[in-house]
Design a protein that fits this description.
about 950 residues, alpha+beta, Beta-Lactamase
């Protein structure tokens, strides 16, 4: 018994147990009442009531079992086989019906014993057949002891229950009988559940169709309660019918005379009024003494009398026995009303005609409503015909009542086809045939019928029916009060295609069709998860095209795009299973592969590198695309996607930096370098606030006069732990992080403030970074600093490298023109080191040309360097643009420059960069040159 209580407490939901008990009690009580009613009858009448009792208790037993099973938690997902579930219901009904028949036929001890044994076995058979319907990933092992006890508990209480049910008369005995039946059912169930032990085993589905727990809950609860309510209703109606029969005749006479809302009167055989009720007086306005004797035609309109309608009505009633019709009728005061008329022939007990009974009802309001409904129906037809959605109205019998034209258009049904009256299955077959859906089998028709029904069951939720690329339909249904429903159909084929296209675009690059960064990240994450479980390796490859911007600049963006598309096609063609390639943006690609040995990886890299081995573009204008490839391998180079891709990126940058090295593997020291750069970037953000930055100034002299013309401001960083950090080390990092904007503004402000204190109108030259030229408010910043420091714009010279201009030529030149308009001089720095120097000079009127110091350093040993210096100086003279030489360190270099007519120079020969000239002790003086 303790095991039974544990089974109820630990493995059953108490609410489902209570619900099962309630259903069991109600069904048992109903069965007792139906059984008691049957004992007063005989023959077929008694058999019908016995069958009703058997159905009530059988369905109640079945519902009790499966409701309790819904509350049973085996710890795994379970379903129910339909055949075995139905068989358990049929067994319960059949065996309990036979038990009740025997108990009524033989109410003695022997008969009741047989009936009890049969009823108890029926309960047990239902339980164990029902348990066999349970489908779950386990096997049920039965403990024979508990099974035997459950059978005993099923049979023993049935004996007193049947004895009290068929032999008792009082309500109390009926209640006890019902409770004893309930006890038999409940004890059998929970002892039987205690006997079951689940042993995990693979799920072996013997049928493809299972009932879910939710479906069982709906079917059992609705069916059981509906059946029990029906039983109660039948019992109540049976009792009331007997009482009503005694009152019928007395009530009929009172009813006829008491009716006031319709006219009921008798006509003699000649068609004249023989009697008159209160309803007739109220409806037609004639008192009884005036109405009696009037001909039927007196109540018709003049038009109908002229047409002979009264005579035809009487003739029809005399010949067929009844006439029914509608039309306008006249009241005593001459007003009209719309009447529904019935005239029936009356015969006496010998069959002789004695006259006619006439009933007239005022249907004026109904007529008005009908006319209004017809008008509304016309509007409705117009509205339905212009709906964007298809519409079907199904009745409670699941037949089509109404359909609009849009429905036939969506499905391609012939508009002349009559759909009204079709069942759901017929509609499903018709639309599938019309839409030319492949394989229109009986199974497919059944599926569509279920989906149409599911749309109704889903309420306002949309059910999407996908018939392939040709047609996708969204269905939304709303239930009607009478059990029918209305369903709307919307053709969402194009929307589905658009959604699919948008989804594809969201995960793929629009130019090449390759997966994009997001899609690549998803692929890597999935592969890493698989690799952790199965132990294989994953490589991430970053690919950056070399000098791709030059191709766009020289050949046009159309050629660049075509090259990217052709490259993407090549990459896709060389991919094998377990490999992916993506475009991350611009000229940056990525690839990945799962592999088990180094040979697979090497082959993959060879295939990728081979995609760049042949030229791109037409034969007469072909070019090669180079690429720098870096890779990192899971798990040794990173456990997470971000780490793996970052390390592959580091390897790619090393490949790009090392000439001749196209493929680079990640190495741990790369991380150290990147970490050092990040540390410098972090420290650089605080350098201004910590007063670690300073400016030094290198003098510039005119070679012809020997007079100082100005200074170039140079930035220095004194790090608290690293010491002096070279500009070549921290300026590129500042440009990468964007800190160059704040530093550049600080340098410009400091230099202008210093120059404002210099005598003799000396100029100050300040370098502008290429990144600063992307600053939207650069012109306003320069203007604001000049106003703030009070420095004349003519004393400020901004130096721009060729590379800075070429990066975004149109934008750069536009900004430089605005700055030049302020009165600020613009010098081109490091002239001669770029590939488009002459084009740059042609594009913008620079105020000064600065020869890169590399040419002057090699001038003593390289005739080519001297030739370039001469050419630049000649170019400056022809363009009337002053030329300044950087890096002058010897007298021979000074003589060379003077000989070729160079205007200005700076370098160690004239002085090293030093502190602020305004704070220096030596005066600014003329210098003897040469």
């Amino acid at each position: 018994m303790f095991d039974v209580l544990l089974c109820i407490h630990d493995q059953h939901n108490e609410w489902f147990v209570l619900l099962a008990g309630a259903i069991c009690v109600i069904s048992a009580m109903s069965a007792v009442q139906l059984l008691r009613h049957a004992r007063h009858l005989s023959g077929r009448a008694a058999a019908r009531w016995i069958a009703g009792a058997g159905i009530a208790i059988g369905f109640g037993i079945w519902a009790t079992h499966f409701v309790a099973m819904l509350g049973y938690d085996p710890g795994v997902i379970a379903g129910y086989q339909i055949p075995a579930t139905l068989m358990s219901l049929i067994t319960a009904i059949a065996m309990t019906t036979m038990s009740f028949s025997i108990a009524l036929a033989r109410p003695d001890a022997k008969g009741l014993a047989v009936a009890s044994l049969l009823g108890g076995c029926g309960i047990a058979a239902m339980h164990y057949i029902g348990m066999s319907a349970l489908e779950l990933p386990a096997q049920i092992h039965w403990r024979s002891g508990y099974v035997a006890v459950s059978l005993l508990f099923a049979v023993v209480p049935m004996y007193p229950a049947l004895a009290l049910a068929v032999g008792g008369r009082a309500i109390r005995s009926g209640v006890i009988a019902g409770l004893m039946m309930t006890l038999s059912i409940v004890l059998l169930h929970f002892v039987g559940m205690t006997a079951a032990r689940l042993v995990p085993a693979p799920l072996d589905l013997r049928t493809g169709v299972l009932l879910s727990r939710d479906s069982m809950a709906v079917v059992i609860t609705a069916g059981a309660l509906g059946l029990l309510m029906l039983c109660a209703t039948v019992l109540t109606m049976a009792r009331k019918t007997r009482l009503a029969l005694h009152e019928t005749e007395r009530d009929m006479s009172i009813l006829v005379q008491g009716i006031t809302d319709c006219a009921i009167y008798k006509l003699d055989r000649g068609g004249k009024v023989a009697n008159w009720n209160a309803g007739a007086q109220r409806l037609k306005g004639y008192p009884a003494d005036e109405a009696i004797g009037l001909p039927l035609a007196a109540f018709y309109t003049p038009e109908d009398r002229a047409a002979g309608l009264p005579e035809r009505a009487m003739s029809t009633a005399a010949q067929s026995g009844k006439f029914s019709g509608e039309g306008w009728r006249m009241r005593r005061d001459g007003t009209r009303f719309w009447a529904h008329v019935t005239i029936e022939r009356i015969a006496d007990e010998h069959g002789d005609d004695i006259g006619f009974a006439k009933i007239t009802r005022d249907m004026t309001r109904f007529k008005e409503d009908e006319d209004r409904l017809k008008q509304m129906a016309g509007h409705l037809d117009a509205a339905l015909g212009n709906m964007h959605q298809g519409l079907c109205l199904f009745g409670p019998d699941k037949r089509l009542l109404l359909v609009n034209a849009r429905f036939t258009e969506i499905w391609g049904v012939d508009r002349e086809t009559s759909l009204v009256g079709m069942t759901i299955e017929e509609v499903a077959r018709l639309v599938l045939d019309a839409s030319a859906y492949p394989k229109v089998s009986q199974t497919r028709i059944a599926d569509l019928r279920l989906q149409l029904q599911a749309s109704a069951d889903a309420g306002n939720a949309a059910v999407v029916l996908d018939l392939g690329d040709a047609l996708v339909v969204s269905m939304v249904s709303r239930a009607m009060a009478d059990g029918g429903w209305v369903t709307t159909f919307e053709d969402v084929t194009e929307r589905r295609r658009s959604d699919a296209k948008i989804a594809h675009m969201a995960m793929h690059d629009s130019l090449t069709g390759l997966p994009n960064r997001s899609s690549f990240a998803h692929w890597i994450d999935a592969e890493l998860e698989q690799a952790r479980h199965f132990g294989h390796q994953v490589t991430a490859v970053m690919i950056d095209l070399d000098r791709f911007k030059e191709i766009n600049d020289t050949r046009g963006h159309g050629a660049g795009d075509a090259a990217l598309q052709h490259l993407s096609k090549r990459l896709l063609e060389v991919l094998a299973e377990g490999e992916v390639v993506a475009r991350l943006g611009g000229d940056e690609f990525a690839a990945a592969k799962r592999f088990k040995d180094e040979a697979d990886l090497a082959a993959f890299l060879d295939r990728l590198e081979g995609c760049f081995a042949t030229p791109f573009g037409p034969e007469d204008n072909s070019f090669y695309l180079g690429a720098s490839i870096g890779l990192a391998v899971f798990p040794q180079d990173g456990e997470r996607r971000e780490q793996l891709l970052n390390n592959a990126d580091l390897a790619m940058y090393r490949a790009k930096a090392n000439v001749g090295e196209r493929i680079a593997y990640y190495e741990p020291e790369m991380d150290e370098t990147a970490r050092a750069r990040r540390q410098i970037a972090n420290d650089l953000r605080q350098a201004i606030d910590r007063d670690e930055l300073s400016l030094v100034y290198q003098p510039q002299y005119g070679l012809a006069t020997g007079e100082m013309t100005g200074y170039e401001a140079l930035l220095r960083w004194q790090h608290p732990t690293r010491g002096a950090v070279a500009p070549d080390d921290f300026i590129p990092i500042a440009e990468e992080t964007g800190e160059i904007f704040r530093i550049g503004e600080w340098v410009l402000r400091e230099a202008c403030a210093e120059a404002a204190a210099w005598p003799n109108g000396l100029k100050v030259a300040v370098n502008l970074s290429a990144v600063q030229l992307s600053q939207n408010d650069l012109v306003n910043v320069v203007r604001g600093i000049l106003v703030e420091t009070g420095l004349s714009p003519t004393r400020l010279e901004l130096e721009i490298t060729e590379t800075a201009i070429i990066a975004d030529k149109l934008r750069a030149l536009h900004l430089l023109r605005q700055i030049k308009a302020l009165g600020v001089s613009i010098a081109i720095d490091d002239f001669g080191t770029g590939y488009s120097s002459l084009d740059t000079l042609h594009s913008f009127p620079f105020d000064k040309i600065k020869i890169d110091k590399s040419f002057l350093i090699r001038s003593q040993t390289s005739a080519q360097a001297r030739a370039i210096i001469k050419a630049v100086l000649a170019l400056g003279q022809s363009l009337n643009v002053p030329v300044l030489a950087e890096g002058v360190e010897t007298l021979d270099q000074v003589d060379l420059l003077k000989e070729q007519g160079c205007d200005e120079a700076q370098g160690y020969y004239f002085g090293r960069p030093g502190a602020s000239p305004s704070l220096a002790s030596a005066p600014m003086e003329r210098r003897q040159i040469g």
